[in-house]
Amino acid sequence: GGLDERRLGMSTAGWRLLQRLEVHNADLALAELPERTKANLGAREVGKFKVSLDLLYQAEDWMKGAENKESAAPRMFQLSFSEVPDKEYFMVGKRVVEATKEINTILSELKLTRRRVSMTVEGKLFVSGQFRIRLGQLIVQSKRTSTVVLEVQHLSSPSEESEPFIKELTTFIHGFLSADTINSVPVAFSNFSLPTTSFTPKHRALQYVHLVQQAMSSSKKSQAAAASSNSVGGASSAGHTSMPWSSTGSEEKKR
Prior knowledge:
By secondary structure, the chain is of the alpha+beta class.
């Protein structure tokens, strides 16, 4: 019944594919994609999910007054998942580390890091047989973006060999989306000492870090292209909405 489905939805097992969908109208996409998921895959909505991700810098390096603080300070990503409420995940360099929630108390007391950007992905969880489908929206600094996130989990397959099959399944969800709006999030897990024969929350954390890095890069390229176009043609940039990747001074918080 529904309770069993919700429990399965909380499962961390099974290989996952993550896709970043860049759309012009996120509200429309988030209304239509769930309906396609239900109609084409016979999926049932069983709950919600949330991924929280903070981009952190070492506080000491941040306060040195470097001209370009963003590139000068070493970065660390901190993530948490609603399905694993008692854990935190960190990506530092080529390592992904799992810790209990108590780590936040330590970070806060030592004041070693400063939060630069706070992000979440929030959305709905669907169940279709052995598949768990998550559809959500990327929110940056409490502002909704045009990035829709599609995550498909195959419970009965723990290895990356199932990825082509999962990718094929996503075509039944995309519907009206054009191919250039669909961006899979490839991750070379072996470069981070993670196996490709089993999937863990560490794998998922790495996928989401890569997703936001993709989105950040895409946003900066779009802003640069818009600025170049405006400088050449004198066109107004009023219609261009950039992602709020940089926080203001009041939003920067020590951890």
